[in-house]
Every structure is written in structure tokens, then in C-alpha cells.
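lol forgot to send this yesterday, sorry. C-alpha cells for the thing we talked abt
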């Protein structure tokens, strides 16, 4: 592999103009395709095989009009203190509001009059009522004009003395991606790159190539959106991961190029060796990320599958950009990419006598060349105290992981929004006046000949269940073969008792089916959330086994070892559990919530654990491959185990630390977004990178390698014969030894 990638790097370096033009054409072509593509479809949510999805599919078939995907808004109205919503004056104001809502937009189908169904739409104390506004189009297509008209009608009723709030998917949601996160991440990344390289050009290359890679990935997702059913939110994960790994992959190749130049190789050879060695690590690191993201398909939730595959595709583009476009850009600035203080050694023109002496002194000063850097000093310290470092790291991460034992999972809803939003205030008003279960009603579908009568019998049985407030009369379709009942629980949608009630209702339905109906299904948004969480729970272990197993095989091929991949996997489990504990402490318990900007604590999003496993595992293996591959390279070339560890940190410690800081800055930038999901996943990934890069990979890994010694690189002979050989360390490249270090008079090709 190293030889093939080295040739590719040399080719890209020599044909830099053609390579740059090729990528610019791809970038422009994909961008044009995205700009001319139809609008992406609205977000859809389905869970094939679950009871909730079976019921929704049945409703679509049997109640085509009622099951249309049009948006709706529930406008809640409360009379002034001391008055009733049924008073003549308040009644007139509410009906005026209903009339304005009906006429607010051509996309409105209608708005219900609460006084026509007072038993359902008016609270028992007579202070609160609600009206439901339905639209012809899905929530994504309601439009700003319709949103503004709805807001205007609500504000006008509020000026008349009523307390009016609105919830539902037709209400404008202020939690949007504002682009601030990407800008902050890129800015911090630029600062870190300048400090790492000491060169504006070297710092700019990873940023430019990462933006090109992400641009191609996101544009590709947009261009294929209508064809493959990729919604606008599919690209969120691709943007976060693609930007982070794109910068890191280019960073490693540029850093290796500079190291090869310092060792005396000419620019083309240095570019070839950089792509052959660091590029090999990039390919395998990218493969682990791709495996982790594409593995989300085993969850069998189409939304997660699409997000994972889209992000995996963007990572693949980032790998290709790193091993082809980066060496091409190095060809345009082979000297200026070096640190400013070292450029005298690489000048094309003969230097003056004074500059020759200055460059020679810098190149041959034994004090400077032998001076250990921070990475070697840290590695030497760990090698002297491996047990202490191991215990402190494990105990520390274990302590942070403790809150994960109290993890409560749920899906975001209006009840978890900030109290400053009208959706949350409407939710609270309904809970206070109609009961907490009113915000999470359950829907029961009954299939039978004479479905209305069968539905009434089912309703009578369900009313006797503890935790049920009311059951509506059965409403049958025209063929009278399917009926619907609405069940209102006593507890809210996210309450554990509601989940227990759903299970009990399904058990009761199973007992009723043989003698009452051919099929009874319990669904509704609350039941769907419960099924979603259960689906994720069931898929967690298979997904973890698939991802870790495939990555273990990849790392075993790369490192020719059993224990190195094993410790990599165990370290990942420790870091991801600690990160999950930190997420629980902040977003569920409320610790440091104000600092992070969390306005409303509550259950952790159900998708968070599986997202963290997929994404963090891929990123953790990045650091493992980049750091340990340098150790493996030294070991292959004859270094003793301790020397290999120190050598790995000498060459890779600073770069890995910079890469981790860049990833943390990219993910941390998303914490400032208003979207709760984006804020949570940004915090989770940032803290996970902190734990994994700086504690697991930079502390626990060298400590374990120090304790294992030569056995760390042990591989049974029979397995060694079976495994394919890939030259990640660049052994074949050493057939052409490096020239003597650069003399001040050396002439090289520059731009």
C-alpha cells in the first residue's frame, strides 16, 4: 500500500496543476448539480417492523384523508384571571381568532371551533380552550407567510386580553442551524494550525482542502436528495464529521512532508513518502470511521441509515482529497510550507556566506537537534510511571462515567423546549388545564368486521386500565372495517408510567384480539417514541459488536498485533462511557448547564448513545492509527519497545494533540447553536475527543505499551501467515535511503 500511495503522491506533486483543476471541476460540477436539483424532501420518520409503524401504515391505507401528512398547529387560549373562556365576551374573541386562523393562509384547510366540542376542547374549569389549525402541506412547506399570519393572529388575540400560545409542527421553530458553529470551529482550527506549523501557508492547506471536501460531500447530498430521499437534516452529521476529519487528515500529511524535508529528501520524494506513510494511516483511519458510520444501517431506522451513509461518503471524499489534492498543493509551495525559521535551508538561490553559516549552524547544532520536545518528555515520564498514570487515568474516567448509570433516554418534544418558546408555554397550559397526558395521547386501531362496534368493546376494556383518563368513542372508516380510538393517559409523554401503560395496553389488546377483532394496534407519537427507543436499545449491542469487530480486524492487519487492537477497543469503551456520563451530568442533571447554554434539562436524546458509539469510535481509531503507527514504524525499523513509544510521541505527539484540539474546536463550535440536538451532540463529541485523545491515547496507551513491552506486538505465526500484508510503515520505501541532510547550498525546486 505504501508504495502505491507513494507513487500517487509523487504523481499528484508533479501534475499538481492537473490535479488541482480536476478537483476544482469536481467541486464546481457537484455544486452546480446541487443548485439545480429539486428541493430535498421533508423529514420523514419511519421504523419498519414496529407496532407503531404498522398502525401508521394501516391508517394511511384505511383513512387516506385523516392520515395526510399536512402540518397542524394547536392554539391554546386562556381567559383573563377571574373570567371563563365560555363568557360571552371571551367566546366572541375566541371565535374571531378561529375565523382569522382559517383565513390566515391559502394553505390552511380549517380550524376547529372549541365551542362545538366543549367536552373535548374546553377544560373542566372553563378557563382554557384550544383550536386545531390544519394545513394542506407538510411542516417543511408551510412557508414564512403562513407562519407570519399565524403569529399575527395569535398576537392580535393576545392584545384583546387573552393568553394565547401555539404548538405543533406548523409553528415556526426558531431552533435552526445558523452556521455560527462552523465559523467558530474553522477560526479556532486556523489558530491551532498556525501555532502548530509556524506557517500561514501550511496552516491554510488543511483548511482549504477540508472545505473543498466538505463542500463536495454536502453538495453531493443535496444533489441526490430528491433521488435518494435525503432530507435537509441528513447533511448535519456529514458536515460535522467531514470538517473535522478533513482538517486532521491533511494536517497529518503536511506534517509528515515537513518531517521528510527536514531529513533531507527533495520535495517530490518527501511528498511521495508523506502520502505513502501518513497517507496509509489516513486510509485506514478513514476506513474505521466509514465502517462506524455505515454500520448505523444495522439499526434499521431509515433516517439514521441515511445520515450515517451520507457522513461516510463525506469522509471517503476527505480521504481522497488528503492523498491527492494535499500533495498537489504541496507542489505549489514546497518551501513556503516549511516553518519560516527553517526556510533558509531550502532556498533555491545560493545563499550569502552569512546566511550559509546561519543555516548550517541551525541544521547541525547538536544541542537543538537532540533537544527533546514536549512529546518525548511526556512519553519518558509515562514510561517511568506507567502504573500510576494507568490508575489515575482509569479511575478519573471511571468517576466521570458514574452519571451514565442514571441515563434516561427520550426524544425531544415541546415539553423539553425552553420555557421562552410559545410551543413550551402552550404545552404547559394544556398540561395544567387538561392533564399531563393530554399532550401525549395514544391511538388504538381496531380491525374487524363491524369495526365501530368492535372498537367500542375494546374501548370499554381499555377504560378499566390503571393510568387511563379517558377513551374516545370509536370512529370507523366508510367500509367499517377499521376504527380509531384515542386514549388519554394520566401521565405525560416522557413519564416512565406512560411507557408502562403502553405495554399494558398492548398486552390487553393481545388478549382481546381473538374474540373481539382481527388486529388491535397501539400507536400515536408517544408510542412511536417508545418503540424508537426500544429499537435503538435492541440494536445497540449488535451495532457495537459489528463496529468494534470490523475495526479490530482492520487494526490487527495494520499493526500485526492482537493486544494493540484490543487495548484500542477497551480504551474507546472507557472514553465513550465517560463522555456519556458528562452528557448526563450537564443535559440531564443540569451541572454547568448555564455555561453550556442549556435552558431546559431532561432526558438524553435516544439517538445519542448509538451516535456517540459510531462517531467517537471512528475518531478514536484515528488517533490510535496516527500515534501508534509511528511507534510501529520505529519498532519495525529495530527500535526497542520503550524507544518506539518515545519515537512515536516525538514525531506524532504534537500533531495528534493539534488534531484533537482542532476536532474539539469544530465540535465545540456547534454548542452555540440554538438547536438542542446539535448542541448536545456537539458537546458530546467534543468532550469525547478530549477524553479519548488526551487521556486514553496520550496517557493510557503509552502506559500499557510500557507494561506490555515486546508482547504488545505479538501475533501468532499462523495468524501472521493468514492476514494480508499492507505496508503502512513504509518498509518498501526504505529501499531508497534518504540523502544526507540538507546543506545550506542545496538547491531545490520551488514555486
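and heres what i got for the seq, position by position
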Amino acid at each position: 500500500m505504501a508504495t502505491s500511495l507513494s507513487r500517487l503522491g509523487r504523481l499528484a506533486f508533479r501534475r499538481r496543476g492537473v490535479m488541482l483543476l480536476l478537483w476544482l471541476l469536481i467541486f464546481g460540477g457537484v455544486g452546480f448539480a446541487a443548485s439545480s436539483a429539486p428541493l430535498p424532501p421533508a423529514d420523514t420518520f419511519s421504523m419498519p417492523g414496529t407496532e407503531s409503524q404498522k398502525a401508521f401504515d394501516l391508517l394511511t391505507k384505511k383513512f387516506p384523508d385523516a392520515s395526510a401528512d399536512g402540518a397542524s398547529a394547536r392554539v391554546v387560549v386562556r381567559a383573563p384571571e377571574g373570567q371563563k373562556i365560555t363568557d360571552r365576551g371571551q367566546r366572541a374573541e375566541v371565535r374571531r381568532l378561529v375565523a382569522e386562523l382559517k383565513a390566515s393562509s391559502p394553505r390552511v384547510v380549517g380550524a376547529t371551533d372549541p365551542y362545538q366540542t366543549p367536552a373535548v376542547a374546553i377544560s373542566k374549569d372553563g378557563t382554557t380552550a384550544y383550536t386545531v389549525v390544519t394545513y394542506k402541506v407538510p411542516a417543511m412547506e408551510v412557508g414564512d407567510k403562513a407562519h407570519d399570519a399565524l403569529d399575527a393572529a395569535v398576537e392580535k388575540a393576545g392584545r384583546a386580553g387573552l393568553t394565547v400560545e401555539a404548538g405543533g409542527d406548523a409553528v415556526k421553530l426558531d431552533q435552526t442551524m445558523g452556521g455560527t458553529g462552523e465559523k467558530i470551529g474553522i477560526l479556532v482550527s486556523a489558530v491551532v494550525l498556525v501555532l502548530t506549523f509556524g506557517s500561514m501557508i501550511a496552516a491554510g492547506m488543511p483548511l482549504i482542502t477540508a472545505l473543498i471536501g466538505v463542500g463536495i460531500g454536502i453538495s453531493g447530498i443535496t444533489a441526490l436528495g430528491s433521488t435518494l430521499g435525503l432530507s435537509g437534516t441528513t447533511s448535519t452529521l456529514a458536515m460535522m464529521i467531514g470538517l473535522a476529519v478533513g482538517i486532521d487528515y491533511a494536517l497529518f500529511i503536511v506534517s509528515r512532508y515537513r518531517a521528510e524535508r527536514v531529513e533531507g529528501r527533495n520535495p517530490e520524494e518527501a511528498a511521495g513518502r508523506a502520502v505513502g506513510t501518513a497517507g496509509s494511516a489516513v486510509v485506514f483511519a478513514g476506513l474505521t470511521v466509514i465502517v462506524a458510520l455505515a454500520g448505523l444501517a444495522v439499526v434499521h431506522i431509515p433516517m439514521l441509515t441515511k445520515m450515517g451513509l451520507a457522513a461516510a461518503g463525506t469522509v471517503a471524499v476527505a480521504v481522497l482529497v488528503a492523498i491527492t489534492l494535499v500533495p498537489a498543493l504541496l507542489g505549489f509551495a514546497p518551501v513556503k510550507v516549511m516553518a519560516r525559521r527553517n526556510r533558509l535551508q531550502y532556498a533555491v538561490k545560493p545563499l550569502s556566506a552569512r546566511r550559509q553559516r546561519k543555516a548550517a549552524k541551525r541544521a547541525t547544532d547538536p544541542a537543538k537537534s537532540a533537544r527533546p520536545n514536549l512529546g518525548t518528555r511526556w512519553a519518558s515520564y509515562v514510561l517511568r510511571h506507567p502504573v500510576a498514570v494507568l490508575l489515575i487515568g482509569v479511575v478519573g474516567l471511571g468517576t466521570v462515567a458514574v452519571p451514565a448509570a442514571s441515563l434516561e433516554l427520550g426524544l425531544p418534544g415541546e415539553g423539553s423546549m425552553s420555557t421562552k418558546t410559545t410551543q413550551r408555554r402552550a404545552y404547559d397550559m394544556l398540561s395544567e388545564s387538561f392533564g399531563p397526558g393530554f399532550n401525549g395521547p395514544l391511538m388504538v386501531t381496531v380491525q374487524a368486521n363491524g369495526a365501530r362496534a368492535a372498537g367500542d368493546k375494546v374501548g370499554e376494556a381499555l377504560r378499566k386500565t390503571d393510568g387511563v383518563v379517558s377513551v374516545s368513542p370509536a370512529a370507523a372508516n366508510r367500509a367499517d372495517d377499521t376504527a380509531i380510538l384515542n386514549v388519554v393517559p394520566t401521565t405525560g409523554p416522557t413519564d416512565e408510567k406512560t411507557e408502562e401503560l403502553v405495554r399494558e395496553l398492548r398486552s390487553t389488546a393481545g388478549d382481546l384480539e381473538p374474540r373481539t377483532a382481527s388486529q388491535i394496534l397501539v400507536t400515536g407519537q408517544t408510542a412511536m417514541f417508545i418503540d424508537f427507543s426500544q429499537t435503538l436499545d435492541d440494536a445497540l449491542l449488535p451495532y457495537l459488536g459489528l463496529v468494534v469487530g470490523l475495526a479490530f480486524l482492520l487494526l490487527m492487519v495494520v499493526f500485526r498485533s492482537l493486544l494493540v487492537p484490543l487495548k484500542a477497543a477497551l480504551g474507546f469503551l472507557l472514553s465513550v462511557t465517560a463522555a456519556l456520563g458528562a452528557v448526563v451530568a450537564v443535559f440531564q442533571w443540569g451541572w454547568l448547564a448555564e455555561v453550556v447554554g442549556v435552558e431546559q434539562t431532561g432526558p438524553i436524546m435516544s439517538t445519542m448513545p448509538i451516535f456517540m458509539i459510531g462517531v467517537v469510535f471512528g475518531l478514536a481509531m484515528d488517533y490510535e492509527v496516527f500515534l501508534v503507527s509511528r511507534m510501529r514504524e520505529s519498532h519495525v525499523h529495530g527500535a526497542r519497545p520503550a524507544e518506539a513509544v518515545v519515537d512515536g510521541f516525538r514525531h506524532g505527539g504534537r500533531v495528534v494533540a493539534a488534531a484533537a484540539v482542532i476536532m474539539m474546536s469544530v465540535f465545540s463550535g456547534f454548542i452555540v447553536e440554538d438547536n438542542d440536538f446539535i448542541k448536545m451532540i456537539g458537546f458530546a463529541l467534543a468532550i469525547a475527543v478530549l477524553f479519548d485523545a488526551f487521556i486514553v491515547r496520550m496517557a493510557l496507551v503509552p502506559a500499557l505499551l510500557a507494561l506490555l513491552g515486546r508482547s504488545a506486538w505479538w501475533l501468532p505465526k499462523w495468524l501472521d501467515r493468514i492476514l494480508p500484508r499492507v505496508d503502512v510503515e513504509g518498509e518498501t520505501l526504505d529501499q531508497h535511503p534518504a540523502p544526507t541532510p540538507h546543506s545550506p547550498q542545496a538547491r531545490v525546486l520551488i514555486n
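The longest helix spans residues 525-559. anyway ping me if u want another try
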